Amino acid sequence: MDLLERLTPIEQSVTFGALKVVGVFAIVMFLVAYAVLIERRVCAAIQDRIGPNRAGPFGLLQPLADAVKAFLKEDFMPAQAHPVYFWLAPALVMIPSLLVVAVIPFGSTLGNPDNRMVIADLNIGILYTFGIASLGVYGIVLAGYAARSKYPLMGGIRSGAQMISYEIAMGLSLIPLFLLVGDLNLGAVIDYQARGLFGWLIFKQPLAFAIFLVAAFAETNRLPFDMPEAEQELAGGYNIEYSSIKFALFFMAEYAHMIAASAMLVTLFFGGWTLPFFGLDQPASTFWGGLLHIGIFLAKLLAMMVLFVWVRWMWPRFRYDQLMALGWTRLVPLALGNIVVTALWLWLKAG
Asked: In degrees to the nearest 10, what's the CA dihedral of 174, 179, 183, 185?
């Protein structure tokens, strides 16, 4: 802290921003690694098994063993694959999920009002989120095309159709929230919810939450909407021809997208870093209070990730026609109806 105080205000801002970037990246990568372990543990409990318990105490070093295995496996590329696209696809899938978290407020402050716990506090944060998140599907489509194989191509096409179908419903589901809040800034959404427990938007917009949650499962290719992979039909889909670290990037990207979706759910519907008790819904005035807010956000994030994992091992996969029908004939009309009802309610309230 003494070193930071010797810097000019601009140098302090740049240094603190760099520390936030490094810290958020490290936490996301840690969560990606251990989300796999959580998934395997939850799956084992549901199926009455033990789960990973050999690598380290209680299996806690299993992510490290998985990483070593991924690096040591042969990096194979099919002879018919397009080399440039084949190498580019895994990176295109992984990067958008990391960029999304840049606009999500993961805490209040660290005692200084200028030290806001968000990397980029954009006034159009939600538009940025949708714009960046939609780029991930291009990596999946590109992977399916680059392999020049039947099953990967089918998986890539499915992913593109699925993204178009559910991103519309996801975007429409959030319009009522911003009609209520009156701002597209995610920090303003959290401030709006700092009005007690029933100020959280999960209670004011439960239908919007339900639509967004279902669309989030579809956007992250998680069961019951994992049609782009569908092992029983497509033998793995778009990533079937990948191995070693490139396959690991696809695997990591799925969990990074799940983390980003969980962070958005916490921010939009569960008050973000706030708790409606003991004054924890106000910006921290001390360093330790700021750390507590970050801990609250991470606890809510982990709870949403457990929900994602639980649903995967409890629900059967939809048929593809059911998947598309749900998006277009159920979620989109419900989202449009919710917009109309919310707008009418606000108009009558204002009148």
From this structure: -10
Distance set, CA 140 to CA 15, 57, 102, 123, 169 (Å): 35, 36, 22, 30, 21
Residue-wise pLDDT for 286-334, tens only, equals: 888 888 999 999 999 999 999 998 888 888 888 888 888 888 999 999 9
Q: What is the pTM of this model?
A: 0.89
Q: Where are the alpha helices (DSSP H) in 47-149?
A: 62-72, 83-100, 125-133, 136-146
String of b and e for 284-320 (b: at least 16 CB within 10 Å)?
beeeebbebbbebbbebbbebbeebbeebeeeebbee
Q: Which amino acid would we find at residue 219?
A: E
Task: Supply angle C-alpha 123, 124, 126, rounded to 5.
Answer: 125
Q: In this predicted model, what pLDDT tens digit does every residue of 99-143 receive, in sequence order?
A: 888 889 998 887 777 778 888 888 888 888 888 877 877 888 888
| Residue given tokens 């100020």 in the structure block | 199
The residues facing 24 across adjacent strands are none
